[in-house]
Amino acid sequence: MADTPRYTVPGLSTQSGQQILDLLRRRLHALNELHLTLKHIHWNVVGPHFIAVHEMLDPQVDKVRDMTDQTAERIATLGGSPCGTPGALVAERTWSDYAVGRADSIAHLGALDLVYTGVIEDHRKAMAATDDLDLVTQDMLIEHLRDLELFQWFVRAHLESASGNLSTTSANTETQAAAQADQQARQQP
């Protein structure tokens, strides 16, 4: 945890600034982790849909890196000190490492659906927490959510059956989601 800032943006108390910094620090870690996870999948995806998934992920990686940079710059603007080191990320994260290695593209997309769900849910909580604190930060988080939700839709388009069922609906872990997605894909004609 960073020290309390000595200043923040005009019109915001340092106490409110600290609350926002705490939210943003966690979002910074989540976005850094998401960037690394997307690259991991990009490098480890195999199978008949390899090139489609491999190429779909590059723009997502770039946009998530931009989100990370925006978040770090907002932290600095608010008088904080962004920490993007691997040690800080690992020490403060509340989730486990991505659990899938080299695997079929549909399996990775199943696991990635759960990753996006976690990031989006936590981003929405942070957005809601800024309602009475800082609408500028909230606006940034809303912009991030717009893209994160779009990216999850891209992923889910591969996981949805013609009848509208999402293969990862009952999964609680990335490995379960990967297995369920793979199983549904094998059952489709």
Could you walk me through the main structural features you see in this protein, from its secondary elements to its overall organization?
One of its GO terms (molecular function) is oxidoreductase activity, acting on metal ions. Belongs to the Dps family. Residues 168-189 have a biased composition (Low complexity). The structure is a single chain. The chain is mostly helical. It has a single domain, classed as Up-down Bundle (Ferritin). The protein contains six helices and two strands. The protein has helices spanning 14-44, 50-77, 86-92, 105-129, 135-157, 174-187, and strands spanning 45-46, 103-104. Strands 1-2 form a two-stranded parallel ribbon. Helix 4 crosses helix 6 (174-187). The model has no long low-confidence stretch (mean pLDDT 94).
Please sum up the structure shown.
This is DNA starvation/stationary phase protection protein. Belongs to the Dps family. The protein is 68% helix and 2% strand.
- Overall pLDDT, averaged? 94
Residue fraction in strands:
under 5%
By CATH, the architecture is named Up-down Bundle
Number of strands: 2
Content-based structural category: mainly alpha
Instruction: Show unreliable segments.
Output: none
Q: Kindly report the name of the CATH homologous superfamily.
A: Ferritin, core subunit, four-helix bundle
The largest beta-sheet arranges its strands as: 1-2
- Total helices: the number is 6
Helix coverage percent: 55-70%
**CATH fold field value:** Ferritin
Query: How far apart, in Å, are the first and last alpha carbons?
Result: 52 Å
Query: Mind describing the biggest β-sheet?
Result: 2 strands, parallel
Radius of gyration: 18 Å
Number of domains: 1
Shape: elongated
* String of helices and strands: HEHHEHHH
Which CATH class applies here? Answer: Mainly Alpha
